[in-house]
Amino acid sequence: MMISTKGRYALRLMIDLAMHEQDGFVSLKDISERQGISVKYLEQIMALLNKENLLSSQRGPQGGYRLAKKPEEYSVGEILRAVEGSLAPIACLEGEENPCPRQKECMTIGFWEGLNRVIDEYIDSVTLQDLLKDSSAF
C-alpha cells in the first residue's frame, strides 16, 4: 500500500480548512497559495471529498469550502479512503468478501488480514484534530 500524492494533499487540504474554519468558506485559491498545490489538482481532490460529504461548499464571490463537521469528528482513515479508495495491502482484501479462489489454502492470508487490521485501526484512531494538534508543535 502506497498513499498517493492525492491522499497526502487531501490531508494537507483538510488541515488547512480546519486551521481556517473561523474564516467561514475558504477559496481554493487561498488554499493553493498556502499549500503550494495547484488549483486544478485541488479541484480534483475537493470533488472526491465533496462526494463523500466531508465538505460544505458555497458558490459565488464569498464562496469556497469548509469542513462539514468538527475536526475531531474526522478520522484520517475516512479522509484517505475518500480519495484513495481501499487501503488494503493486497487486492483480495479490498472488498467485503475475499474473492480469491485460493483463500482456503492460502498460508499467508492471516498475515495480510492482520496487517490490514493494524492499518485500519491506526488510521481510524487518528483524527484531523490530532493532526492539527501535532502540527502546532512546529
Mean pLDDT across all amino acids: 91
How many distinct helices? Answer: 6
* Topology order in helix (H) and strand (E) letters: HHHEEHHH
Helix content: 40-55%
Number of strands: 2
**Beta-strand percent range:** 5-15%
Strands in their spatial order, largest beta sheet = 1-2
Assign the structural class, choosing from mainly alpha, mainly beta, alpha/beta, alpha+beta, or little secondary structure.
mainly alpha
Poorly predicted runs:
none
Distance between the termini: 28 Å
SSE diagram, text form:
Blueprint: H1 5-19, H2 28-35, H3 39-51, E1 55-58, E2 64-67, H4 76-84, H5 109-125, H6 128-135
Tell me what you see in this structure:
With about 140 residues, the protein is mostly helical. It has six helices and two strands, in the order αααββααα. The chain has helices at about 5-20, 30-35, 40-50, 75-85, 110-125, 130-135, and strands at about 55-60, 65. Strands 1-2 form a two-stranded antiparallel sheet. A hairpin with a 5-residue loop joins strand 1 and strand 2. Helix 1 (about 5-20) crosses helix 3, helix 1 (about 5-20) packs across helix 4 and helix 1 (about 5-20) crosses helix 6 (about 130-135). The model has no long low-confidence stretch (mean pLDDT about 90).
